[in-house]
Design a protein that fits this description.
heterotrimer; B: alpha+beta; 5 strands; 47% helix; C: TIM Barrel; 8-stranded parallel beta barrel; 34% helix; globular
């Protein structure tokens, strides 16, 4: 039995208040983005101005925490400077790393900002060792956030074939498609994660009470109908209720959230170095509850104790959780 | 499963009493309070961005009155209306008073309240999201905002008010002040 | 038509068959394309699901030769989502051969040699990425179908500057997402590992309708596509003006040679756009057509017919 390594807890912050909350609740690392289309959580009222980013990084550094700046959308053709400036501004504000997805931007940073640490965003969907080794070799990427489509066994196999760090999602919203390769949202609304940093954007969401049901529409398409008293999902396309042949229901995925706390020991054994909590769009109440819970879980694992039970389900979409693709039966 | 069981309702007798009272004092207090909040938390309106042009109906479903927020940069307003007399709005956020206060004070998560259907949103979803995020970042503490209106008297009023609030929070399980977290 | 001379220079590419067709149907399709379709390039091979490959892999050589005899340039497709060791080994072998290969997962850049082509599932959104791929030796890039016209224009210009051929998605259901999970299997209460190849019963994919009975998406195994068929046959002059060099036609059941003929005739100025679109519609009864990604506010915006 090898010595247990300390897993790094990487936590979301959509606002300066959430950043401070996450640091105080025991986050090792915070990830956040600028308030524009350069990051994949470009939601109304969210994210950081340049000054707020500087102050947030300062707050974290003074308390021994790191800050990663996500610049993980794909630069719009004709507007590449906007993304390159975001990278330069993050470096100037002492970000510990930037999280990127676009090859062109990675090449630019490797060339122009050689001292800036590079993490590969989940939006790059590097799902195998060959792809990861390519990003490491070409751009000097130091860490890869693995897509949420891999089993624990596959993650272990990948780690045996690569030299860079891997980070995996442990809790929160669950993409069922290969991330960064999905145009469902822009098909219905014109706005996509890749181009605009939004999926199923609020500006195109409509809720209506229809005969006692809560009907939700996205870009005019009916996505869901919740009977009275049943949990309401956010109208994300891949978790909608549809008809496919004789099958009526959640054709792609139920409105569930990922909670892989119970798999922390297996993920650690698989060679993962960092655990990522999703939810930059959530409140500081969520941040406080989820970060504290995972702080306890990671500390328990480090001390060789069993992972304590927690009930974060009340905070999750669909009010139910899954271990997702980490278990092969999901496919 | 609904969280409804866990969200306390405003007592019915209190709602009846409120219905019988004149609105003027409450309207005056709301007006002063919103002006003070915006002055003390300038980032709030900045975060709202283009959504400052919207009209928000804040509907505490267990109260006989409704609040209408117009977070204009020039002249922010929070007006009180009796149920049925409210003006046209762009976005409605509705739920028990305890749920709305819990969100403002960072004790409850807006998405979770929505998933469990303890709160309902209608109309301009983008505006609701912007307001929710801006308020969450402002780390508001409504008692502190009220005390700030007292000016120099604040330091005399604060200790007894905080003591009373602590007791009331224990009795009602409602977040009447900002959730304990980090010092800001 | 005024713009005809410019559109005349545009070339047509037949994309890989994305659906699970019986091998005989698949062979017949390529025989007709080889002999009758007025197209310049044909991409052949499996992009969606590696479990389908064994059904026709021993016939690919035959198809390639037939297409070459018909005067078509042939490019081999590689898989869209490379995960397993077997899939990666197969892709690496593909790139080790003599033929031109299309990259559909960036993983394949690990093996691609100068002269490779880039398919529409690769995220080429920025001039920086296009430039990187050009430096690696990309010869042709089919841009992601979700790009709006302004981005297509900017990227086509960037491609021309570095000698890369820019292609756009021009006809057929639009690939929107890939997953580790098989939705065809899931709709039949099966899993990917025990799928019984149920995707084979739907030659153009399985329609996904909203609860309001509105046609919306299409399931094709692990791939999710649009329900509407993209058609840019009314936008040829704009695309030619922007410097787009080739159009990708994605195979569907029905008379596909007729689809290629309609595009060729429209490009040559022999067929008015409205008439050309009418022919496409006649050839795909019941299909809805869109060009929303390129010209509209959202991908699903339908063509007013």
């Amino acid at each position: 039995m090898t010595m247990t390594k300390r897993l790094e807890l990487v936590c979301p912050a959509g606002t300066p208040a959430a950043l401070r909350t996450a640091v105080d609740a025991g986050a090792d690392t915070i990830y956040c983005g600028f308030a524009d289309e350069t990051n994949a959580r470009n939601f109304p009222g969210l994210n950081f101005s340049r000054d707020e980013m500087a102050a947030g990084i300062d707050y974290a550094h003074k308390r021994g925490a790191k800050v990663l700046v996500a610049i993980n959308t794909f630069p719009r053709a004709g507007a590449g400077d906007f993304w390159r400036k975001a990278v330069a501004d993050a470096e100037a504000r002492a970000a510990d790393a930037v999280i990127l997805a676009d090859i062109g931007l990675l090449a630019h940073v490797a060339d122009q900002h050689p001292k800036l640490r590079l993490h590969l965003s989940v939006q790059a969907a590097a799902a195998n060792a060959d792809a990861i080794n390519f990003y490491a070799r070409e751009f000097g990427v130091k860490r890869v956030v693995l897509p949420r489509v891999l089993t624990v066994q596959e993650i272990a196999a990948i780690n045996r074939e690569i030299d860079v760090e891997t980070e995996v999602f442990i809790f929160g919203g669950l993409c069922v498609m290969a991330e960064g390769r999905c145009s469902l949202s822009s098909y219905a609304t014109g706005k996509s994660p890749n181009m605009n940093g939004v999926c199923s954007p609020a500006s195109h969401v409509e809720y209506r009470e229809e005969g006692g049901d809560l009907a939700s529409r996205l870009g005019g398409f009916a996505i869901h109908r919740s009977p009275q008293g049943a949990p309401a999902p956010y109208p994300t396309l891949c978790k909608g209720c549809f008809r496919a042949g004789d099958h009526i229901g959640h054709v792609f995925e139920e409105p569930v959230s990922l909670d892989a706390a119970a798999l922390i020991p297996q993920l650690a054994d698989a060679g993962v170095v960092a655990l990522k909590i999703e939810g930059r769009q959530r409140s500081r109440a969520y941040t406080e509850a989820v970060v504290s819970s995972f702080r306890r879980a990671v500390d328990a694992h480090l001390a060789g104790r069993p992972i304590p039970a927690s009930d974060l389900r009340r905070l999750t979409e669909g009010q139910q959780t899954t271990a997702g693709a980490y278990r092969k039966t999901w496919r | 499963m609904s969280m409804l069981a866990g969200i306390p309702r405003f007592p019915v007798f209190g709602a009846r009493l409120m219905d019988a009272l004149p609105l003027a004092p409450l309207a005056l207090a709301s007006e002063r309070m919103v002006a003070s909040v915006v002055r003390r938390h300038p980032a709030l309106l900045a975060r709202l961005g283009a959504q400052t042009d919207k009209t928000f109906l804040l509907d505490a479903v267990d109260l006989p009155i409704l609040f209408v927020l117009r977070p204009r940069v020039s002249e922010p307003r929070l007006d009180v209306y009796r149920r049925g007399a409210e003006p046209a709005w762009d976005a409605r956020i509705a739920g028990p008073l305890a749920a709305l206060l819990g969100m403002v004070h960072g004790a409850l998560d807006g998405d979770a309240l929505f998933f469990s259907r303890d709160i309902v949103i209608e109309g301009d979803t983008e505006a609701v999201l912007a307001l929710r995020n801006a308020v969450d970042d402002a780390e508001l503490d409504l008692p502190a905002e009220a005390l700030a209106l007292l000016g120099p008297l604040e330091r005399f009023a604060e200790p007894p008010l905080r003591r009373a609030l602590r007791i009331a929070e224990r009795l009602t399980s409602v977040a009447l002040s900002r959730a304990p977290g980090h010092a800001s | 038509m005024s713009g005809a001379p410019m559109t005349k220079d545009m070339r047509l590419t037949v994309g890989p068959v994305l659906f699970n067709w019986p091998v005989e149907t698949w062979m017949d399709f390529y025989a007709r394309v080889a002999d009758e379709a007025p197209v310049d390039k044909v991409v052949v091979g499996e992009v969606v699901c590696s479990k389908r490959t064994p059904f026709y892999e021993d016939r690919i050589l035959e198809v390639v030769e037939r297409l070459q005899r018909g005067g078509k340039k042939v490019v081999l497709a590689s898989l869209g989502l490379l995960t397993t060791v077997r899939e990666r080994r197969a892709a690496a072998e593909l790139f080790a051969g003599e033929a031109a290969v299309e990259v559909n997962d960036l993983t394949a850049l690990a093996w691609a040699r100068p002269g490779f082509e880039v398919g529409p599932l690769v995220n080429v959104y920025s001039e920086g990425t296009l430039g990187f791929l050009a430096r690696k030796g990309a010869r042709s890039i089919c841009l992601p179908p979700e790009l709006p016209f302004a981005a297509v224009s900017a990227l086509a210009a960037a491609a021309a500057a570095v000698g890369v051929d820019a292609e756009v998605w021009a006809y057929g259901r639009i690939p929107l997402a890939m997953s580790a999970r098989c939705y065809h299997a899931r709709a039949h209460n099966l899993t990917k590992d025990s799928c019984q190849f149920v995707c084979g019963v739907d030659p153009d994919g399985l329609g996904v309708d909203t609860l309001d009975d509105e046609a919306f998406l299409t399931i094709n195994g692990v791939q999710t596509m649009s329900n509407s068929y993209c058609s840019v046959i009314g936008d040829l002059e704009a695309l030619a003006g922007a410097g787009v060099g080739a159009l990708r036609l994605s195979p569907h059941s029905g008379d596909f040679v007729e689809v290629a003929r309609a595009f060729r005739a429209a490009l040559d100025g022999d067929l008015a756009p409205e008439e050309a679109q009418r022919r496409l519609a006649e050839n795909a009864p019941g299909a809805q057509f869109s060009h929303g990604f390129l010209m509209g506010a959202a991908g699903a915006e339908l063509l007013g017919v």
